[in-house]
């Protein structure tokens, strides 16, 4: 029997879409959440001195992975959520990398201390970067006919995109109004029986690490 343990900060950070993968796969796992002040204890246990990280125990052997995208790719392959062919797997990773770029841009906005640069960066994110990427995603989804980013159906890239969109809060509906295929994908992911079950029971937190700045309207 394989045991999975996911270690993460108690906030809406980079571990959330990994939980989506576990949920979509119907795979049980143990969550070990901790606060910032507890990090030194867990840092010593982590493979790269970073969080989140994954621990896999099988046949008495322990295997650890850091880096959220690496963890996601590993789990997606294990749970048949990576794509049905090498080409689909490559496409899913390409789309996920694009979402990751958007997330990193959101992180930079969040941590920018200069208010003028913060507002400028947020404006670029919400009026250029995200809309441009959603337009590309929308065309790909509409063209392949599955309702998802690749033709064979749901992959971890769809789950990652849905999680990212969920972070946009009140801006999400405005942005999705020009991307109907992406909006449909987002709704399908959240309506997925196993994913919706997880969403209903997941801890409620206002500690979004990567939300838009309060001064951006």
TrEMBL record:
Superkingdom as given in the UniProt entry: Eukaryota
Residue span(s) of domain GST C-terminal: 85-207
Signal peptide range in chain numbering: none
One biological process term in Gene Ontology: glutathione metabolic process
Keywords recorded for this protein, A-Z: Transferase
Molecular function, one GO term: glutathione transferase activity
SUPFAM superfamilies: GST C-terminal domain-like, Thioredoxin-like
CDD domains: GST_C_Sigma_like, GST_N_Sigma_like
Residue ranges annotated for the GST N-terminal domain, each copy included: 2-83
Any single Pfam family the record assigns to this protein: GST_C_3
Name the record gives this protein: Glutathione S-transferase S1-2
Organism, as annotated: Brachionus plicatilis (Marine rotifer)
Lineage: Eukaryota, Metazoa, Spiralia, Gnathifera, Rotifera
């Amino acid at each position: 029997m394989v045991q999975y343990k996911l270690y993460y900060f108690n906030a809406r950070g980079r571990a959330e879409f990994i939980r989506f993968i576990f949920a979509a796969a119907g795979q049980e796992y143990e969550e070990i959440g901790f606060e910032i002040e507890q990090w030194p204890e867990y840092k010593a246990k982590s493979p790269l001195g970073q969080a989140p990280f994954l621990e896999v125990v099988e046949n008495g052997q322990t295997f650890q992975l850091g880096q959220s995208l690496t963890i996601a790719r590993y789990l997606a392959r294990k749970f048949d959520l990576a794509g049905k062919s090498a080409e689909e797997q490559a496409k899913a990773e390409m789309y996920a990398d694009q979402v990751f770029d958007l997330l990193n841009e959101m992180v930079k906005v969040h941590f920018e201390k200069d208010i003028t640069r913060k507002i400028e960066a947020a404006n670029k994110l919400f009026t250029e970067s995200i809309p441009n990427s959603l337009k590309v995603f929308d065309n790909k989804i509409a063209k392949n006919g599955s309702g998802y980013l690749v033709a064979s159906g749901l992959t971890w890239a769809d789950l990652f995109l849905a999680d990212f969109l969920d972070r946009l809060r009140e801006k999400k509906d405005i942005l999705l109004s020009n991307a109907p295929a992406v909006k449909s994908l987002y709704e399908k992911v959240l309506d997925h029986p196993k994913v919706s079950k997880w969403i209903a029971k997941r801890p409620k937190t206002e500690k979004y690490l990567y939300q838009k700045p309060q001064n951006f309207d």
